[in-house]
Amino acid sequence: MKASCVRARCAGERVKAVRLIFLGPPGAGKGTQAQRLAEDTGVEQISTGDILRQAVKAQTEMGKRAKACMDAGQLVPDEVVIGIVRDKLGSGDCANGFILDGFPRTTGQADALGAILLDFSTPINRVVAFTVDDEALVARLCGRRTCTGCGAMFHIDYAPSKIADQCDRCGGELVQRDDDQESVIRDRLTVYETSTRPLLDYYSSRGLLTEVSAGGSVDSVYAALKEAVAT
Questions:
Q1: Which of 98, 104, 135, 205 has a Cα-to-Cα distance from 167 of 20 to 30 A?
Q2: Annotated catalytic sites, by residue?
Q3: In Å, how far from its chain's centre is CA 194?
Q4: Tens-level pLDDT at each residue, the chain (231 residues)
Q5: How far apart are CA 148 and CA 154, in angstroms?
């Protein structure tokens, strides 16, 4: 199925009705690419983590339910996450389209999303799966360092700080987060394989899936992404 509604063939061109899903394992860079494409096309980037925090802060009905789960140390159930996604997709923010960044994560969520989009008469144009070798992902994530002061992120190989273990912005200490430890990363990749990868077959069978290799530079991946969504 061709994403005929996607017409952004050059940076800065604003388009209508861009409706995309970005999938990929942790560290594939889908959030970075989603942000860049959203800026170039003028559509809304929807990260479930971001809209969950927004809903909690705004004290929406779904936000209150999510906060109750979080305060109790529980995972936010699918029905609440899906409700928050529905609220966002139904808002004026998404009138010109959207990029779903990392959602859905399971085929059950994909079924629920399909029902929402059917209600809104806003079918998905394209599902982009960013692919990277597991060992490259482990190296990419293990090398990340985060500032304890301002939250800025660096990488010991790709974007090192000028002074080892010190933030260039605020001088704070740079540390490796717990979720950037190798054992944790490999566990996250296993979870992706078992729960999220079946989505590739789900969307492939519907003629919506395009794979983009995310092993190169940010610019080269973005060039491949633009080509994928414009054809």
A1: 135
A2: 30, 105, 144, 177, 188
A3: 18
A4: 333 333 333 333 433 468 999 999 988 999 899 999 999 999 999 988 888 888 888 898 888 988 888 888 777 888 988 998 999 999 888 988 999 998 998 999 999 999 999 999 999 999 999 999 999 999 989 999 999 999 898 999 888 999 999 999 999 999 998 888 999 999 989 988 888 889 999 999 999 999 999 988 899 999 999 999 986
A5: 12
Cα–Cα distance for residue pair 5/117, rounded to 1 Å: 16
